[in-house]
Amino acid sequence: DVPVRYLSTGQKKRAALARLLAATGVACVQPGGQGCCGAAAAHAGDAGGAAGLARANRLAFEGHARVLCLGSGCHDALARSLEGVARVEDPLVLLDQVGGTLQFRPANRRVALHLPCTQRSVVRSQDALRRLLARVPGLDLVELPDTGCCGAAGLHQLAEPARAAAFRAPLLQAFADSGASELLSANIGCRLHLAAGTTINVRHPLLFLAEHLA
Question: Which of 33-37, 54-58, 108-112 has the highest mean pLDDT?
């Protein structure tokens, strides 16, 4: 039987992931009732609000053994809320495992890759992502240097905008120096923060991969 995985967060990213999974023969569904993972509420000190969001997601995913979480910054909060209910997985890892038949169209351009702290330290899907992107013909991938936190850090970009911008500056300079035509990042907070400092497109790697499906 074709295994079924269950999706969480981001309409465009969900559609992109569904296309990629379908190309590998994997079906997916999206249960109703799911919502924010609660990480933002927890960062703001709203423990009650975070717990309520966790309960809603627990009910939404009850009965489903595996859940794909599209945001690296949401992964830990969602995993804790679904402990004992479902295993939370990064879709990039799954695609790397089952996507041997995936074929991609040439990109023929330079693209920059930002690896968020949560992707490297919590989810640890950076190697899977590197392998997936390496399969896109003609892609000139430039991995941005590790300059520490980009400044997003949960709600830090909203609470301390000047300091957050200072943390972001080295990454934006490296991005500008790379000559890349767009920037890929797997964490929504990082993407929003980085995009606010540049006019060049910043998006999730899943969107890039789905766009180049052969």
Answer: 108-112
